[in-house]
Amino acid sequence: MVKQKRVFSSLGFIGALLLGSLFASVTACKTPEGEHGKPELTETVVIDEITPPSPVELKGVKAEDPASVPAFDLALSSQQVPDGALLLLTIHPLTELNLEKVKVKFEGEEFPTFKLKPDGSDLGALVAVPFNSKPRKTQVDFSWEEGKLKKSAAIPLEVIDGKYKSEALKVDEKKVTPPKKTMARIKREQAQIGALYRTITPEKMWSGAFSFPLPTELTSPFGTKRIYNGHMNGFHQGLDFRARTPLPIAAPENARVAMAQDLYFTGNTVILDHGYGLYTIYGHMSSLGVKVGDRVKKGQILGLSGASGRATGPHLHWGAVLMKQKFNPLDLKRVLR
């Protein structure tokens, strides 16, 4: 749970959702009078509590056939996860497993496994639970090889209601429907971002829990459903941080810069590739301080916050994607270890 000092209403630009690939709807914080002034390096941190999920340890997981022996111990960040959440799995082998053949699937979607430490045998996997999917009893499927034998096991998982809020907004229709002359650009950027998210870099670049990219208050949470002029038109696909002045935005973990350019919806935008299908997004920046291909370390400055793109007030939009699935960026801090 995140305690917030206050929440500002925000506008979302839903054309991105209708096109199906853009990572974030446009968000715009209401800017209180007198917030523009000299650049500041820090602001008061009011996100004062982040409660991690309840971890579960399962000892001696074995294949479904009766003759099997325990193959691995399994730790899950939780066995009850909201829609739009991130799940961390840790696999500790008990037998001689072919680590390259260990597979993890959730409802038909395969998620990569990776070594938690380069010289260790423990494996990790991240799973993103689709946002706005119904509460249900489901499972995570594991498959592996013991010698020449193929084995499998299913671990129960419960998806619970994320209880995301809704907000009804009355806005100018021009804010909802993009001008026709911009559609070619939007489609081009859609294809570019879609290709990016399909790229899986086989390298774990992050080292643990992520930090926040800005030390400011959270103004708009993940998952808020937007009802524009009486019609449901999408949801907020990230977190918004207050940024009254151009503030330095820091990389929350080690990564490679996969995109650094001006986009129609989110303006000056940086996308970081953290490896194994995990990406984070930084939108509406006033200036960019990195370029594509740069290796950045945790804490390195990516650029300055702003109000570029389809925004009516200065703020930072922070998004997260795993294997093309958008999820709550807060889980990068409260789930990863």
List the helices and strands and how they pair.
Layout: H1 15-19, E1 56-61, E2 72-76, E3 80-82, E4 86-93, E5 103-106, E6 109-111, E7 113-115, E8 123-128, E9 136-146, E10 149-160, E11 166-169, H2 183-197, E12 218-220, E13 225-228, E14 231-235, E15 238-242, E16 248-250, E17 255-263, E18 267-275, E19 278-285, E20 287-288, E21 295-296, E22 301-304, E23 315-322, E24 325-326, H3 331-334
Parallel strand pairs: 3-10, 11-13
Antiparallel strand pairs: 1-2, 2-4, 4-8, 5-6, 5-9, 7-8, 9-10, 12-15, 13-14, 15-23, 16-22, 17-18, 17-21, 18-19, 19-23, 20-22, 23-24
Q: Care to give the gist of this entry?
A:
The protein is mostly beta strands and 337 residues long. It has two domains: 15-50 and 163-334, Glucose Permease (Domain IIA) (Distorted Sandwich); 56-160, Immunoglobulins (Immunoglobulin-like, Sandwich), CATH 2.60.40. 7% of the residues lie in helices and 38% in strands.
Q: Would you report the number of β strands? A: 24
Low-confidence blocks of residues? 1-48
CATH class of the largest domain: Mainly Beta
Within the CATH hierarchy, at the fold level, what is the topology of the largest domain?
Glucose Permease (Domain IIA)
Helical content stands at under 10%
Rg: 21 Å
Q: From the 3D coordinates, which CATH architecture of the largest domain would you assign?
A: Distorted Sandwich
In what range is the share of β-strand residues? 35-45%
Q: How far is the N terminus from the C terminus?
A: 18 Å
User: Can you summarize the main beta sheet?
Assistant: 8 strands, antiparallel
Number of domains: 2
Kindly name the structural category: mainly beta
The CATH superfamily name of the largest domain is Glucose Permease (Domain IIA)
Basic shape: globular
Element order, helices and strands? HEEEEEEEEEEEHEEEEEEEEEEEEEH
